[in-house]
Design goal:
Length: about 425
């Protein structure tokens, strides 16, 4: 079992820590990455904060510590925390069927073959529960993580998972007309579970999910730069999204649509915009077992439940997007948990560290063994598919993603007085 040392007994080798910046700058200099913002804290105190490169290459606008990023699926843990607050309040229970609030997802069919014809279905054996949504075992899919007719059906019915002008009611109705990829509870399958969870929260409280999240999580934590919507005056702070350009091997700008007003569709699975400092407050809440800076949002036992593996042994044998992710890491209620660090390419640091990244390359980790938070923010789009996970960080056009393990291992290599598993 890992030994948790008092923060005063853990420190950093300044030379090793300083070596991380030039290693990341090399990716910018080679044109593989536009820029990056990193933040590392130990015991809540900042030990490294870097803003490297450009938030916009065309205008040569530099990255800053307060640059805004589309954090994509880093939204999911925040949504999960909001749901667990309702569990504590007695408003919902993990085993509640979601049809109590979302009748659009009643009487669903399940595909006999998730890559087969849409008409080859069988009735779901039970409704989706709140826990199914929190653990991505609902059977709901994402278009990019689907194959065959189901992928096409999701794209046609729902459009872009992150940017949508449908009303919540219309979006849920469209989702309810699609079959499930797998039976509820069967396996971890990445999809719209967290989006539905957010809209369920809104219906339970009879308020827009955005309002609930702002009032109950973001404002209490002081996350004033985090929202589903970016006012025009703040848009110069938003980092531009780039992708690999096959023509010249460099980066090409990916222009994304912006809302003129707060949208109705606020996906709890990937819609938030945030900063390193803001997300650090959420990560500190995780390390603080539900409390940070005198603000408590959930009880310690609730946070412990959130960060404990919920997948069965059989479910852990099922690859995630082609990755053998769950053999040595678990998944709790909206977070992955590092368990075995030996020869584990998907986890770094210490057993018990928690994370969930974003599709545009954003990543964070809260390490309770060292009381350490690491945040790494970029805006780098790579293709994703049902089997692409293992190549996202290593495939053609993903060179910018290779900077992340340099940051990760650089931080841990710089730690002194480090607590080791088994010590």
């Amino acid at each position: 079992m890992a030994l948790q040392l008092p923060p005063r007994e853990i420190g950093f080798n300044p030379d090793r820590l300083a070596a991380i910046r030039p290693a990341l700058e090399a990716f910018v200099d080679r044109g593989e990455l536009s820029g990056v913002v990193t933040l590392v804290t130990l015991g809540g105190e900042t030990v490294q904060s870097e803003a490297i490169g450009w938030s916009d290459l065309e205008s040569r606008r530099p990255m800053r510590a307060d640059t805004l990023f589309r954090i994509a699926s880093m939204t999911k843990p925040v949504t999960s925390l909001a749901a667990l607050m309702l569990v504590e309040d007695g408003r919902i229970a993990l085993d509640d069927p979601i049809t109590r609030w979302i009748p659009e997802l009643a009487d669903l069919d399940v595909m006999r073959d998730p890559a087969g014809p849409l008409e080859a279905v069988t009735p779901a054996h039970r409704p989706i529960t709140v826990e199914d949504l929190l653990t991505h075992r609902s059977g709901l899919a994402y278009a990019p993580f689907s194959e065959g007719p189901l992928k096409q059906a999701y794209e046609a019915a729902l459009g872009d998972p992150g940017m949508n002008r449908m009303t919540v009611d219309d979006w849920l109705a469209a989702l309810g007309r699609l079959p499930l990829a797998y039976p509820p509870g069967d396996r971890f399958h990445y999809g719209h579970s967290s989006d539905v969870l957010g809209f369920l929260i809104g219906r339970v409280l009879d308020r827009p999910f955005r309002e609930v999240l702002l009032e109950r999580v973001l404002r209490p934590l002081g996350m004033s730069d985090t929202d589903f919507w970016l006012p025009p005056a703040e848009r110069p702070r938003l980092a531009t999204l780039y992708a690999h350009d096959e023509r010249d091997g460099g980066l090409k700008r990916v222009d994304t649509e912006m809302y003129d007003a707060p949208p109705a569709y606020t996906p709890g699975g990937g819609g938030l915009i945030s900063t390193a400092a803001d997300y650090h407050r959420f990560a500190r809440l995780v390390l603080g077992r539900g409390e940070t800076d005198g603000v408590r949002l959930v009880r310690p036992e609730t946070l412990a439940m959130m960060t404990r593996n919920r997948l069965t042994p059989a479910q852990r044998r099922v690859p995630f997007a082609g990755m053998d992710l769950w053999t040595k890491s678990g998944f709790g209620l909206g977070l992955s948990i590092a368990e075995d660090l030996t020869d584990n390419p998907y986890s770094v640091g210490s057993a018990g560290a928690v994370t969930w990244p974003g599709v545009f390359g954003t990543w964070w980790q809260a390490d309770p063994v060292h009381d350490l938070v690491m945040i790494y923010l970029i805006q780098h789009q790579v293709p994703v598919s049902a089997r692409s996970g293992s190549t996202v960080a290593t495939g053609r056009g993903a060179a910018g993603r290779k900077a992340l393990p340099i940051f990760q291992h650089g931080v841990y290599d710089a730690l002194t007085g480090r607590a080791e598993a088994g010590s």
